Structures are given as C-alpha cells and as structure tokens.
C-alpha cells in the first residue's frame, strides 16, 4: 500500500487529476479517465501505455 | 550496501545538486562512483546550468538535463521526466540533494536502488538511507564523499575536479587575444556577483579598488565575470576603473566561464559558483565571505585565502541582509589586497608568470 501522503502528491499522467488507491489489487485509479495504473515493487507505474481501462461507477455516472 | 561489487550496477543515475558551486563540490563523490564502478554507464541528471559543468567530464558518460521551469514543471512535468528516465532502465540512483523532489523522480522512474540522505520526509522513497550526525557535518566536499562512502563507494579523488576541452581553451584564448590579452599576460579575474542573493556580495567600488591596485602590482589585465543578472554590478566596476578592464559579465556560457577562469592567473571573488570553479582549476584566489558559512563552502584548495570578519550575526545564510550588512562593510580593500599579496608570496610562480 502506498501512503496517502504520497498518493496526494501524485497525479494522473493523462489529465493531471488526483489518483486514488485501488481496493482489490495494487494500483492507482483515475476516475475521470477510467484508468488503473499498476504498482510494481511498491512503485506506481504512471504511464498511460501501462494503464488498464476500468469500468468505474463514477465514470459511468458522470457520462450519463 | 557493503556487498557491492564493481559490476553491481551497469547503469547508474546520479541526481546532481542544483547550484553551480555545490555541484563543483560534489565532483570528488562523483569520482568515487566512477572509480567504484569503472564499467558502469554513469548518467548525471542536472538542471540546465549545472549540466554544462559536466558536459563533458571524464567521470560522467552522459548528462540528462531537466528543466523545472519548463518542460518538467509541476507534477505533470515530473511524471514526464520520470517516464523519460524509465526508458533508460537505470539499476541505481545516487541522489545528492536533500529535497523530497530529487528523490521522487527516481522513485517514479522505477529505479530499483535509490540511495541518498534521509531528509525532507523522503525516507520511503529511498532504498538506502544516509543519516549523518547533523552537528558534525563539515565542508560540503567531505559531506558528499561521506554520503557515497556510507554506501560502500570509496575512491581516491578528494578534491573538486573539472575539465575543459582544448577547443574551449582555444576559444577563450582567442576571445582574450581579441582584447589584447596575450598568452603571457597576467590575467586577474574579478567575480563581484553571487547568484544566491545580495547578502553574499561585497561592493563594486571596493572590487574596483582592489583590481586597480593589484593590476598595478602585477602588471595584470583585469577581466570581470558574472551572470546576466550581475551585469549592472560589473558595469559599476568598469565605470570605477574608467574602462580599464574587460567586462564579460552576462556574455559567457558556463563552459566559456570555465575556460576563461581556468586561464586566470589570480581570482578575486565573492562566495559563488565561479569561486568553486576557480578552486577546481587550481587558480589562486581570494574569497570574500560574509553571510555564508566558510566552514561548509570555503574554496576547497590550498591556493586560496578567505577574507571574513567575525561579526555576531554571521553566518546568517540569508539572501538579503535584514540589518546593516556589517559582515561585508567591515571588509576593506586593504584586507583583500593584503590577502592577495600574502598568497602571492606563498606562490612564487605567480611572479614568474607576470
């Protein structure tokens, strides 16, 4: 798990918006972009090429 | 880290410090890394000014420049820089500055080994932490050597080291020759600025007086150095000297400055980056210290004299003096001329050159 202090200073490389900790597996989520960034060996890989699309309830709500 | 072998790391990133003078004082530590890992590719990550110091440098294979005020500004810029660094697949990062930011980027770049001082709340970003006794930290050269030594990185280099190319030396000589300063001319360099702030600066009229008196003593030609922001100070000295000098302030790159300072036979300076460049090239110098701590940043050479006065508020380490600047007002032109003469008598080659 990454500390909240660290997550607070990180940003999505696509939209520069805030990230949140994923719940089920190591990763960081950008809700507006619907992207999950992996965390490997305790280090977030904040590259859009490495991110996976996720279906996010908030993304869905925002798009309605 | 004591189980490191010479081939433990193939690709090493060294994150440089951010000021020219500090960067000069890190060179022995960089030399130790070079010696410890002779086969490794050593890349220095530095800002646009500092990167020039090391391009080229025999202990550094490659320089990557970052620009905190340009393309690497803000968190988006840091992510971009980290993505660029990630492509290089560095094995280890040696982080010389203390800031959180300087450790954040190597962490984001996925560099598996990250070594540096534990400071500024960045312990989590490092895999190897140096925790010095803060009360025992002496000169910066020793501090950076201790930092790398803590990780088992030891070398023979003990003094700052810079290089210029023969082509750069020729260009400097040609520039001086265009102003009637030949190869045999005694060149006295004057560096009246200090980028950090006005508190570190002695006074233009006193520099001018020292320059006039030493020029007469040594039959020397005066060259004034400085950055673009110091052009007004240099112009003031030029005016005080009735134009009897070559004013290069604001007209040189860092590389030009290095080659020109190296050519000087003597240097009079504030505590500044050019002071450390002169020290690294073994140019005899007198350094005027006021607001800064000479025990930590004095020129690291036995060819230097520091002129300073013991006043109760120094070293304050402030950029601007909040009171009457007594640490500098009490230093007279006589003090500096006397220091220069004393040093010249210890260095007989000065007279032989003149």
Describe the structure.
The complex is a heterodimer of chains A (about 60) and B (about 350). Chain A is an alpha+beta fold and about 60 residues long. Chain A has one domain (about 5-55): Single Sheet (N-terminal domain of TfIIb), CATH 2.20.25. In chain A, about 20% of the residues lie in helices and about 25% in strands. In chain A, strands 1, 2, 3, 4 and 5 form a five-stranded antiparallel sheet that branches. Chain A is globular. With about 350 residues, chain B is of the alpha/beta class. Chain B folds into two domains: about 10-150, Rossmann fold (3-Layer(aba) Sandwich), CATH 3.40.50; about 165-354, Rossmann fold (3-Layer(aba) Sandwich), CATH 3.40.50.2000. Chain B is about 40% helix and about 15% strand. Chain B has 15 helices and twelve strands. In chain B, helix 2 (about 25-35) runs parallel beside helix 6, helix 4 crosses helix 5 and helix 7 (about 165-175) crosses helix 10 (about 255-265). The interface of A and B includes residues 6, 9, 10, 44 and 47 of A.
